[in-house]
Amino acid sequence: MQFRPLGRTDESIPVVGLGTWGIGGEIGPDSSRDEAGIQALRLGLDLEMKFIDTAEMYGAGHSEEVVARALQGRHDRVFVASKVSPRHFAYDDVLAAAKRSLKRLGLKQMDLYQLHWPNSRIPISETMKAMEKLVKDGLTRHIGVSNFSVEQMKEAQQSLSHKKIVSNQVEFSLVDRSVEAGIMPYCQKEGLTLIAYSPLGQGKIPRGRGSSFKVLDKVAERLGKSRNQVALNWVLQHDSVVAIPKAADTGHVRENAEVAKWKLGSEDYQRLAKAFA
Ligand code: NAP
Question: Fewer CB near the last or first residue (10 Å), C or N of the chain?
């Protein structure tokens, strides 16, 4: 596994992590889906993707319980990130939401706690004050945001008195490259990690047809990789970017774990950038 620095901290995280939206029952316990999700996450951890991303919103908290079960009995170091929902951005609500997430996760501390989406109805300064309190109390080690624009990242950072935001989690893949216009260069310049969500376009890449996908398949065939591996590797060719594909299928997990073991050449990188422009 390759690692990239987490923001401007002195620690690094795996470049390929494990997304959990839709891992296990979508809206609550579902024993067969939960079991499959737990096995997929455990396999991912065994294959060195020791970075799990979840959220209180996923399955109304159930995804965090599935993560807890996947972590049960393990003694290896796993970087665990969760997110607080915008409706909990008032000061006391942030603190309470974090405690509920920790309880569901079976942890005393999260590695990264992220604001899931901006919420213009609650002053960001109030929310960030609560996030700093969580760090001070040891409930999270780092603060991140998600789906924040450049302006919103700036405002969020200005609201923090002594911590730095380490990451912005945003959609990025061959089929959604909107962050390239502003968010990505800002993250690279300011030393924030860009956590790429939906790096397979929520399944659009595995299923895609048409001329761009023909180019992708050609590159994949020549390299002896799957199109999904090439698409994920393309995402990882960008500085400061790590990716969190979600895979409930163990075959997919195995494929994704191989993604960072090689590097797309610059000509193939450009060919794909052009095909999916
Ligand atoms: P994604 O990872 O782009 O795509 C997931 C889909 O791709 C699933 O259908 C999965 O199938 C399939 N897949 C995964 N690996 C594959 C492979 N090697 N070959 C073929 N198919 C493969 O979409 P996502 O779930 O939206 O995004 C990933 C994670 O990002 C989420 O789980 C969540 O943690 C996070 N996220 C965050 C936000 C946010 O607002 N912050 C929003 C969306 C997502 P199987 O499941 O059947 O393996």
Answer: C
